[in-house]
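Reviewers of the previous submission asked for a worked example of the structure-prediction workflow described in the proposal, so we include one complete record here. The input consisted solely of the amino acid sequence. No template or homolog information was supplied to the procedure at any stage.
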Amino acid sequence: LTQEETEFFESKIRPALVEYCYQCHSADEKIKGGLRVDNLESLLIGGDSGHAIVPGNLRDSLFYTAITWADDDYEMPPKRKMPSHIIEDFKKWIEMGAPDPRVPEERIVTTEINIEQGKEFWAFQKPKATEPAAMSNSSWAVSDVDRFIAEKLGEHGLDPAPDADPATLLRRLYFDIVGLPPSPEEVNAYAKAWKEDPEAAYSAKVDELLASPQFGERWGRHWLDVARYAESTGKEVNMTYPNAWRYRDYVIDSFNADKPYDEFVTEQIAGDLMKAKNEEDWQENLVATGFLALGTKGLNERDPRQFALDLADEQIDATSQAVLGLTIACARCHDHKADPIPTTDYYSMAAIFQGTKTYFGTVNAGVVQRASKLLELPIPDENPQSSVGPEILARLKDRLASTQADLDETQAENRRAAIAARTNGTPPPTNNINAILRLRTQVAVIESQLGTLDEDGNSKTLAMGVQDQARPTTSTRVLVRGEIDKPGQTVPRGFLQVLNDVEPEAKMPADSSGRLELAQWMTSKDNPLTARVMANRIWGHLFGKALVSTPNNFGASGKKPSHPELLDHLALEFMANGWSVKSLIRELVHSRTYRMSSKFDSYNYGVDPDNDYFWRMSARRLEAEVLRDAILASSGRLDTERPHGSKISEIGDTVIGRRTQPEQINEPTNHRSVYLPIVRDALPEALDLFDVADPSIVTGSRDATNIPTQALYLMNNDFVIQQAEWMARRIIEEAESDRDRFTLAFLIAYGRPPTKAEIDASTNFFREFRPEAERRSGRRDNAAFLAFSTFCQSLLASAEFRYIN
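From that input alone, the workflow returned the following structure tokens.
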């Protein structure tokens, strides 16, 4: 700046900003409307309404419009207009090009991380093909997986457990692959086929289950844990996401289609930038990018820059943990404490996401400061949920016009009263403020509803997702300690230096955010992490414990792999087989390691109590969704049809806990649990009690607690009691004698017939229960049914029902 420009700003502009603006628009006071005027960068960016200052352009500078009171909606300061000579000074200043010497102190963020040394860590080395030791090629092993396992068992003097019996193995397969128990007919048919040819029966059953549409529901739910899937924003203002269900269905369909994992990942990070063959592909790609839009949102954040930075941070965190198994977001404020990820690397990736516009779809009402639109999809829904027709559409438009007129009149009345108050020297009135806020909310809600409808009153097909900004950023400022008002040096877009050997590290075009290149870099076969991370997740879901027991953290603060050579083998096989999830599952379930029993061995337990070396199959508790589905399947009431949409899509835009209560959301339904509404801070009780994934974070492995409220739920909850009654009706209708009914009940609940001791115990229970129930109720038929329903509930509440052995 010239001396003259600096003196003009310091003598004319800065004092006026301090006197008239800082009270409402500075970091030291408050930030109204998302606007800060205490630094040049914030003035140029502006606030909620757009750019505050456009140097040299008075017409487009909203700041000048506001101080001249040229627009009724922008009158600043609101209580009294600036003197005319100060307004003239601001006019001259903007026409001069808005010279402002308030340049932040130059800060350079440096790092002491040795990147080359960091590359030596195991996770940053490419997977290597290794042959198992010759000693592991025993008669027990039937695959390379078994040979790697046998090698570790031999090193530690452990013997593998015996094979599981056919019924146990069948139940394990069903729950692991489709998340449902086998029916009695399937148990009996499998037992017959097993007698004829065990290997053929087993292989056929594996293929049958992998081809089932229930496979995608089971394995899609695993990915939804990782994707922190939810149908609301969470945080202080918990607004609904009425269109999140489209992403849920996309994930399920992708797993059913065995979409290559590298393509699956690329679609979620950059589907909008991929080439599409037709409208169906284009729509699917757009819906896939909902992955980046689903996270938590602080909708009451007043500073738009802070909101944008937090949004990008959440996207970096979710993407890096889900795909790379790294906690890159830890480097936002300082160099990563454990991994070779400097802060500059974080901001290089942040520039990619800052060049992305996120469409998450919330209404600008009440305390919500960060509203968002949705993406309109090209293909209409076959059964749209919110179509209203021309007549109601016309009513909505009339209601909007009327409400807007009321708002305009109330605001005008408030302005007239304020002017009168200034003239009289009295405080401005405040009695209309609540009315204005209420009318603004009503206008926003009606506009939102109209935004979901076309000109005929039919529902538009809308989805959450992302697209590139009109002008993507090619660089960004590093923020010292992550503080927005302490910018450091500028860094270009880029990836992690510790993985810069990955080919190709594509050059990002200036007119693109760089997300497509980021996705291609992540899914390159040269990337040492992506295939390993997913192979590890698949192993963990099948064996109850991953080879790297911290599946979201392959860094130095995570756990090292128990079987590094096996993990590399699986990663290489995964990529060689076209990134096919089903192929890797098929390979693993055919291993003898998977087919072991859970039999306890005191010596083995003494050496390896946590089963780190997989000397037996770990007993696993059914996950929350699987437990609920198994109860419904046992009663015969499970509805396996996919519902269209979600309960949240029926409710629409609303704030959880204010306009809509959790009990209105979690209404009874017999659909599979993957289709239950997943609202942050309002999860269904049937899932929340049994350690469902926290939808606000990336979940690689769920907790497995054992607490009294779980037992109390199974003993007393109306849902469990009702399903036990339906199960009782089922066995009474399908079998005649008590003995046959006992057998059928055990087949339904446990996938096996009862032992003689269990039949005797069941008989004794009925012999004692029926007379007492008949004496209390006075009805023999009622006593018989009560005995059967209580018997069924005891099976549903038992440990054997709740565990896979």
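The first strand starts at residue 356 and ends at 359. We consider this example representative of the routine output the project will generate in years two and three.
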